[in-house]
Recover the amino acids of this structure.
């Protein structure tokens, strides 16, 4: 008995042949090969064929695979030519060879996709496509169940590990006598539940409301007859990826430092009140009052903004950081992901409104 594998092309008109009709096409073509195909047992035996990762109707491929078994010893030589003598247009067998690697090793799909635009490629096309493919709502029970085709996991066949960057941690709840964490994540309109084993609420590295990056396995949670997708969390950290709004805020502050006057509405959004400046300074005293401290830049700015009351807190928190540095209240060193902060001694009473950044905003609002 031999296990063989076909490599074939499905294109043009054949791309509209459904999966079941494609199976019937090969079942009727195999008698030309003069091979004794292994059949099912019972009153209505039929050839045992298996197409790996079948295509949806309307899609083409030049590397489709079909597995089958024959009762005699065979290496597949000459089978492709015999099958091609009666294949419909758009179906062509390229090769037939022994099936050495198991199906589970071939269950990963690698696709090269080309997008054509009538009016040229938009400037942000790559970022928008990447964001689309990261949408949590694309993960359904069906996708999680298909992962079981990769089992058993072990040496040389690791369990698939996923990462979802830039999601919001909505809720943290201790379960199992507070030995584990039940988590709720959101991104856009989608929500996903997760379980973080052997981590207590006190050990959780992030807080509810923060943007986080989460690494996880996918699993199905069955409870009282309900089946839902659940993330088995492996690691959790404050997100090092900017949201669109955060990127806009950082860009506005960066342009202000470079001497570019912001638009009137942006100047209004950026200029903090006295109460907001006080709240930002008090948080800095708590975070860096004990001497030089190294922090992840984005997570720190988010926590700073959470301590500032009112609207546009992230933008105004970023502006306050530049304001305090410019006035000599704060010393800061930055690299790609970190910042080192140290409060300047003896500099707590400073007129912030004399800052060039503050004056630039006020002049812009007054129309100067």
């Amino acid at each position: 008995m031999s296990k063989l594998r076909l490599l074939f092309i499905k294109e043009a008109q054949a791309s509209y042949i459904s999966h079941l009709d494609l199976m019937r096409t090969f079942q009727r073509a195999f008698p030309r090969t003069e091979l004794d195909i292994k059949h099912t047992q019972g009153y209505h035996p039929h050839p045992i064929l298996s197409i790996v990762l079948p295509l949806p109707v309307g899609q083409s491929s030049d590397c489709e695979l079909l597995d089958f078994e024959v009762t005699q010893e065979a290496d597949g030589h000459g089978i492709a030519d015999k099958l091609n003598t009666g294949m419909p247009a758009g179906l062509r067998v390229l090769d037939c060879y022994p099936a050495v690697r198991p199906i589970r090793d071939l269950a990963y799909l690698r696709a090269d996709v080309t997008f054509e635009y009538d009016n040229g490629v938009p400037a942000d096309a790559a970022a928008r496509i990447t964001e689309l493919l990261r949408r949590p709502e694309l993960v359904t029970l069906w996708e999680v169940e298909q992962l079981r085709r990769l089992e058993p996991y072990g040496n040389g066949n690791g369990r698939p590990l996923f990462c979802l960057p830039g999601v919001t941690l909505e809720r943290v709840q201790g379960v199992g006598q507070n030995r584990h964490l039940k988590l709720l994540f959101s991104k856009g309109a989608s929500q996903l539940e997760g379980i973080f084993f052997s981590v207590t609420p006190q050990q959780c590295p992030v807080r509810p409301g923060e943007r986080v990056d989460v690494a996880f396995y996918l699993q199905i949670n069955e409870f009282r007859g309900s089946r839902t997708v659940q993330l088995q969390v492996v690691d959790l950290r404050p997100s090092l990826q900017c949201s669109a709004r955060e990127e806009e805020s950082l860009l506005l502050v960066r342009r202000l430092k470079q001497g570019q006057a912001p638009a009137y509405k942006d100047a209004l959004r950026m200029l903090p009140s006295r109460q907001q400046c006080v709240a930002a300074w008090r948080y800095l005293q708590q975070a860096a009052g004990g001497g030089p401290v190294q922090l992840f830049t984005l997570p720190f700015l988010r926590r700073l903004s959470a301590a500032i009351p009112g609207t546009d807190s992230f933008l105004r928190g970023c502006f306050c950081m530049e304001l305090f540095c410019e006035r000599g209240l704060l010393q800061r060193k930055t690299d790609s992901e970190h910042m080192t902060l140290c409060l300047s001694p003896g500099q707590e009473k400073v007129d912030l409104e004399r800052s060039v950044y503050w004056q630039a905003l006020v002049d812009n609002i007054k129309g100067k």
